[in-house]
Amino acid sequence: MPVSASFAAPAVPPVDEALLRETIRTLSSDAFEGREPGTAAEPKTLDAIIARFKAAGLKPGNKGPEGKPSWLQDVPTATITGGNRSPLVITGDALTLSFKPSSEFVAGSYRITPHSEVKDSELVFVGYGISAPELGWNDYAGIDMKGKTAVILVNDPDYAMATEEGLFRGRRMTYYGRWTYKFEEAARQGATAALIVHDTFPSAYGWQVVESSWSGAQHFVQSANNGADQTVANGWVQKSVAEAILKAAGKDLAALTAAAGQKGFKPVALGLKASLSFDNTIEKANSHNVIGILPGKSRPNEFVLYSAHWDHLGHCKPDATGDGICNGAIDNATGIAALVAMAKMNRAAGPAARSQVFLAVTLEESGLLGSEYYAQNPVFPLAKTVGGVNIDALYTGGSVKDVTVTGGDKSELTAILRKAEGAMGLAEAPEEGPEKGFYYRSDHFSFAKRGVPMLDLKRGTDLIVGGKAAGQAITNDYENLHYHQPSDEYQESWDVSGMKQDVTLFYRIGRELANGTTWPNWHPGDEFRAIRDKSLAEAAGK
Q: pLDDT-based confidence at 377, cuts 50/70/90?
């Protein structure tokens, strides 16, 4: 349905600055030890969030044992740490190549199993590993991948463009360019294994990032089948390794890459086989999401969603002063404080037509696991979830003139956002680094990939007092000196007027959704449009 042309703009309740500050101050204090899930800090954190949700007027959003109201949703997780890793061995006619783990390739498994082994699996070059029916693109056309290993290019076909005009939005990365999608699609195609070719420019990070990320523990949501529907192994190879493998197959990586960038590309069997193995140490644990709700007065079975993650890193590497607690004041005590403040504002404004869900998720820092689990096991049906806003890290500093939309204009939510911006006198600034795919790296993505339109907004840098130079200085200071460091601590001297502006913007968007009748969809051609169309059709048919 099209978004309403008019923007309801009743009086907006004020943001309670004292509540905002108190929530951030409390959750980021040393008493909460950095809010690491699964530690003694978790129950204390959950109790603090629940107390503030209650005080703001929310009701428990879940049901516990015997159907009793509950604030919590269990999030069962598995942590897999690989070890005893073999080389990657490539064989062919009178040919054997061997590549060292860590320095030349990395691999892990999404399967919860003590041992992972790929033996003599046929290698197939599948270009960018994309199946996008809405774009008429299928890199797996005409091949049965059962038992085979996919060799996949990173990013998507038009990443090198200077503009966003390409089939895959040009320079802006789409979901199809994310490495997580490529492994998921290889599994859907029935592949035994998947190997992504690392290249620094389209990856947007060097090999050292891949190596360090895949050498330690990997965190997953537990599934009923222990990941049996996933590939046996997922991994990355250095570009030079891929070049050597393709040369042994009589192929050229550069030539195949050029071919893979054209519609109609067909997968290329390489006539080589891959073998690798590793052991897995498995630990299972349980964390919790916190769910509160303001029931709607006339359409209570339609839901607007606000999300923010409560977790942070806990104890970390001490700084020069000996402080070893990563308190996570900005990241993301500010997000939880915004949820609490918005709940109070909505309570003051009275019941909206639709229900509003306030979701504080766990394990964002471990790979969006809390939001992923909720999206897999929604308390409120995703087909009945209208859309929403995710809140992650609100910076300090004064009010601004502009807002940045992570991911750009992807859905009809943008129209509602722009009406709210207009009511607040805000401009829209272009996103920095669209090629880095930031839209796919925070909790809203867990809902978006299942069809629910979600906004992820960042305050711009053009401050009303001080302009862009002052705004950029605040951003640089946090990202370079405090992000994931013990110094991310609450300060009484903070100017939170910009945070209050953020909360007001989120409130206006959510309130319009909650009082409206429209069901925003993704724009035609967006990677999430098809699944939203399907869910809306199914919901309408019930």
A: very high
Show the tokens assigned to 131. 């199946």
Structure confidence at residue 216 (pLDDT):
86
* Helices of type H across 198-293: 200-203, 207-215, 239-248, 253-260
Give the whole-angstrom CA distance, residue 216 versus residue 88.
18
Supply the pLDDT for residue 360. Answer: 98
Amino acid at 495: D
Work out whether strand 299-309 and strand 354-361 pair parallel, antiparallel, or are unpaired. Answer: parallel
pLDDT tens track for 119-174:
999 999 999 999 999 999 999 999 999 999 999 999 999 999 989 988 999 999 99
Mean pLDDT throughout 318-327?
95
341: domain range?
17-70+295-541
C-alpha distances (whole Å) from 46 to each of 51, 150, 207 are 9, 43, 38
Look at the chain and count its residues.
542
CA 330 to the chain's CA centroid: 18
- Cα-Cα-Cα-Cα dihedral of 220, 26, 34, 14, to 10°? 50
User: Last residue of some domain: 253, 283, 313?
Assistant: 283
Whether 6 shows a pLDDT value over 50: the answer reads no
* 261 and 361 fall within a common domain: no
Q: What is the pTM of this model?
A: 0.93
350 half-sphere exposure, CB direction, 13 A CA radius: 6
Q: How far apart are CA 21 and CA 333, in angstroms?
A: 10
At 474 the pLDDT is: 94
Residue 92 and residue 485: Cα distance in Å, rounded?
Answer: 49
**Last residue in a domain, options 248, 283, 318:** 283
Summary mean pLDDT of the chain: 95
- CA 506 – CA 238 distance, rounded (Å): 42
Predicted local distance difference test score (pLDDT) of residue 3:
45
How far apart CA 415 and CA 424 sit, in angstroms, is 14
Q: Is-contact 225 287, C-beta < 8 A?
A: no
Q: For residue 55, give the CATH number of its domain.
A: 3.40.630.10
Q: Give yes or no for a contact between 453 and 389, defined as CB atoms under 8 angstroms apart.
A: no
Question: Which ranges of 452-496 does DSSP label H, i.e. alpha helix?
Answer: 467-477
The CATH number of whichever domain residue 210 belongs to comes to 3.50.30.30
Take residue 312 and report the two structure tokens written for it. 């942070």
Radius of gyration of the CA atoms of the chain, in A = 24
Q: For residue 294, list its beta bridge partners.
A: 356
